[in-house]
From TrEMBL:
The keyword Iron applies. The active site is at residue 232. Catalyzes the formation of sulfite from adenosine 5'-phosphosulfate (APS) using thioredoxin as an electron donor. Residues 51-212 form the Phosphoadenosine phosphosulphate reductase domain. Pfam families: PAPS_reduct (PF01507). One of its GO terms (cellular component) is cytoplasm. GO terms for molecular function: 4 iron, 4 sulfur cluster binding; adenylyl-sulfate reductase (thioredoxin) activity; metal ion binding; phosphoadenylyl-sulfate reductase (thioredoxin) activity. The gene is cysH. It is found in: Cytoplasm. Its EC number is 1.8.4.10. It comes from Blastococcus colisei. GO terms for biological process: hydrogen sulfide biosynthetic process; sulfate assimilation, phosphoadenylyl sulfate reduction by phosphoadenylyl-sulfate reductase (thioredoxin). InterPro entries: PAPS/APS_Rdtase, PAPS_reduct_dom, Rossmann-like_a/b/a_fold. This is Adenosine 5'-phosphosulfate reductase. Keywords: Cytoplasm, Iron, Iron-sulfur, Metal-binding, Oxidoreductase.
Amino acid sequence: MTIAIRPTPELAAAADAQFEGIADPVEQALAVLRWAGETFGAEFAVTSSMADGLLAHLASRVVPGVNVVFLDTGYHFAETIGTRDWITGVLPITLVNVTPPQTVAEQDLSFGPKLYERDPDLCCELRKVKPLAQALAGFVAWGSGIRRDESPTRAGTRLVDWDAKRGMVKINPMAAWTQDVVDAYVAEHQVPVNPLFELGYGSIGCAPCTRPVAPGEDSRAGRWAGRGKTECGLHT
Ligand code: SF4
């Protein structure tokens, strides 16, 4: 497969500067996604945790049939799997469902049960980071739904960045969105949302590593709570 434009750090920086000037966050996100689709074609994919269908909805508006990569870790809430199937059923996307090489039972045999409690970094490496790296090897640009307002570790997120670890362009079209923008877009477009948000979850990952958040906590405070870990390694 050939691509018209080679992904480079310079290309990413120029695009980032171009899109930062768009004031409306929805128009900004659509412009970034449209650019990625036109520039990289079938070699562009977005990822989704299936917390909601927001990025998939935005991307499918300007890149119909867009590849949506989901890391099916084997530890997801039933609600998350249901949200994946809901989104795949109602949006014009191509689901790329990625599973780790080992099932949870096989991992338990190799590393002992509940690896997520004893060594969550290794568990994330085995069930998220490596599988995503393999899945993204077939693409030259990828997109995520991370936002600057989600946590201090994400405050410097760029709209278009260079993923030096993978040698790819990485886009974060919703980097500048706030929760108010999210809520308004979801309501206007009837975007599928994981029902766990109704139960107080602020960010949704694997079931053993996710708890609801208390009022006033940042949305990712319920991820790996009490384990000194804030990111799974996909965006760092
Ligand atoms: S979030 Fe938890 S269960 Fe999921 S891969 Fe990471 S450590 Fe394992």
